[in-house]
């Protein structure tokens, strides 16, 4: 503490000796000079920086075109709307539903913090708040309850803020093979039942046939009486 006071006294004496100003006046002038430098450097900065800033401001002030309904499109088609082409809308999907997020290009457009989500169904990544490529998918299987709640919050936000313009086309599941296998199984089952019903006949005469045969054949006692 004593050394700090000694250094302060030495600094005040040096300021007065070399500038002829009091310490308070010296530090006031220093602050004013710094403020002037900051303002001047902003006015006469790099032309490229000013051009980029003006271009960005111009884009933000321009009215956005109305959203275009796309209907069902594939995931490959959705990749065309990742913001790389400024003439196309900026799209993003959650749980298979596609939204136009062009009004938030600063977030989802090129250079934005969520740019990697654009042009994709990023449901899994949003649920896990992950920026890994493996999570940039619409597959939400295996997610926990907290992750599903987080995804639900994201979906509510998008539904209230952005316009839905389409959905992701689901892959067609072939049913021919399944139907044919089902038919063949039924056919085999019917054949097995028919074979089981016919088996007693093949093995030997049935009980009813034996009964009829016994009625038609006279017994030995009856034959003796007739004689």
From TrEMBL:
UniProt KW Membrane keyword: yes
One Pfam family matching this protein: Cyt-b5
Segments passing through the bilayer: 20-44
Source organism superkingdom: Eukaryota
Residue ranges, compositional bias (Polar residues): 217-227
InterPro entries, A to Z: Cyt_B5-like_heme/steroid-bd, Cyt_B5-like_heme/steroid_sf, MAPR/NEUFC/NENF-like
Protein name: Cytochrome b5 heme-binding domain-containing protein
Domain Cytochrome b5 heme-binding per the UniProt entry, residue ranges: 73-169
Family from the record: Belongs to the cytochrome b5 family. MAPR subfamily.
Cited SUPFAM superfamilies: Cytochrome b5-like heme/steroid binding domain
Region feature Disordered, mapped onto this chain: 171-227
Keywords: Lipid-binding, Membrane, Steroid-binding, Transmembrane, Transmembrane helix
This protein's record includes keyword Transmembrane: yes
């Amino acid at each position: 503490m004593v050394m700090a006071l000694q250094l302060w006294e030495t600094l005040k004496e040096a300021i007065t000796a070399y500038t002829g100003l009091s310490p308070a006046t010296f530090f006031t002038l220093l602050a004013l000079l710094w403020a002037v430098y900051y303002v001047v450097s902003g006015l006469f900065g790099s032309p490229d920086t000013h051009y980029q800033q003006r271009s960005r401001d111009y884009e933000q002030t321009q009215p956005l075109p109305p959203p275009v309904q796309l209907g069902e499109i594939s995931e490959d088609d959705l990749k065309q709307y990742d913001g790389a082409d400024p003439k196309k809308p900026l799209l993003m999907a959650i749980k298979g539903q596609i939204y136009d997020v062009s009004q938030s290009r600063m977030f989802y457009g090129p250079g934005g913090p969520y740019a990697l989500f654009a042009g994709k169904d990023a449901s899994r990544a949003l649920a896990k708040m992950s920026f890994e490529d493996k999570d940039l998918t619409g597959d939400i299987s295996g997610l926990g309850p907290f992750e599903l709640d987080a995804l639900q919050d994201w979906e509510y936000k998008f539904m209230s803020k952005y316009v839905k313009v389409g959905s992701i086309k689901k892959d067609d599941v072939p049913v021919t093979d399944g139907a044919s296998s089902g038919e063949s199984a039924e056919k085999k089952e019917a054949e097995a039942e028919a074979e089981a019903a016919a088996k007693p006949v093949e093995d030997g005469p049935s009980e009813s046939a034996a009964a009829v045969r016994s009625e038609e054949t006279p017994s030995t006692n009856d034959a003796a009486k007739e004689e």
